[in-house]
Amino acid sequence: MHHKRILVTGGAGFIGSAVTRHLVNELGAEVLVIDKLTYAGNLASLAPVAQAPNFNFLLGDICDDAAMARAIADFRPDAIMHLAAESHVDRSIDGPAAFIETNIIGTFRLLETATAYWRGLDKAQQAAFRFHHISTDEVFGALGDEGKFTHESAYDPRSPYSASKASSDHLVRAWHHTHGLPVLVTNCSNNYGPYHFPEKLIPLMILKGLAGEQLPVYGDGSNVRDWLHVEDHARALALVVERGVPGQTYLIGGDAEETNLRVVQTICDLLDRHAPRPDGQTHREQISFVADRPGHDFRYAIDASKIYDELGWEPCESFASGMEATVRWYLANNDWLQAVQSGSYRGERLGLNVG
């Protein structure tokens, strides 16, 4: 990599830790992770790189200007990969304030700090520097039965979470156009894979399935998502920060559309194969249908042809292979599961606080 020193915000989270593991173990980059270690940040997700000489960790908050300025000045990164964010739609319905504070105000403060650092570099270093903002396809709203999100899709966020991410996307692009900061923006589809905090659909269904509990499916389960394995996403992000054109946006998707019900049924079938119920019944019998999420977007799908054509990336995992690997990982990593469930989240439903 040309960018040998990379600062990763939110690097103890789900996607951030996958990026960090890839940068440290596969690409040999010198990485500084800065993470606030909220409920979804977990140092256990960084255990595979914790002893590596090219890995560093700092407990910190992107909203703390002075601390971030010191960290950036001391580490002197070639690139900043910004993943620190509140990310769960249901949680944003119950408590939107944290999403506004971290995703909008935090991104603004980080942009200010990064811009001041960038301006102090020499001309060659300024030209090589990158500020990579990692975002979501949810900023585009919802699709009907046909079509995909493209680089021409208008922003139409529908939840407090997606609205906060849309705002941060606009801020990042504004700093590029106004100040010349060399930024990159990526918008990804739904991620899944190892080290995923269990408030999200796939890990939650695995845990509840193993516990013999009901598997709650919102509405009739017909909502569709494009599923992207997190390690495929990590490879894509590393390519973008290395070879992406400043000022450009890259959409990253797994080309793996599935309904929520089909996802849960797939998990059930894999659990039947690898961890059968002692009573001989199938895990599908645990599925139940519950009231839908308020404002639940019907369908997301991404046209990732730009990153395919320009950067040569494509996903390695199909939905079938990725889900097989994911379920097997959770079955083999009970210690990690126990650790992440020891905090405030106990698998209860979120997103019901609608006024």
Question: What key attributes describe this structure?
Answer:
355 residues; alpha/beta; Rossmann fold; 7-stranded parallel sheet; 3-stranded mixed sheet; 12 helices; globular
Count of helical segments? Answer: 12
Radius of gyration: 20 Å
Task: Please mark out the parts with pLDDT under 50 across 5 or more consecutive residues, or reply none.
Answer: 343-355
Secondary structure class reads alpha/beta
Shape designation: globular
Distance between the termini: 49 Å
Give the beta-strand count. Answer: 12
Average predicted confidence as pLDDT: 92
Helicity level, as a percent range?
Answer: 40-55%
CATH class of the domain at 5-192 and 229-253 and 301-316: Alpha Beta
Biggest sheet strand line-up: 3-2-1-4-5-6-10
Structure description:
- This protein is of the alpha/beta class and 355 residues long.
- It has a domain at 5-192 and 229-253 and 301-316: NAD(P)-binding Rossmann-like Domain (Rossmann fold).
- Helices cover 42% and strands 16% of the residues.
- The strands form three sheets. A seven-stranded parallel sheet has the order 3-2-1-4-5-6-10, sandwiched between helices. It has a three-stranded mixed sheet with strand order 7-9-11.
- Helix 4 runs parallel beside helix 6 (160-179).
- The longest helix has 24 residues, at 96-119.
- The radius of gyration is 20 Å and the shape is globular.
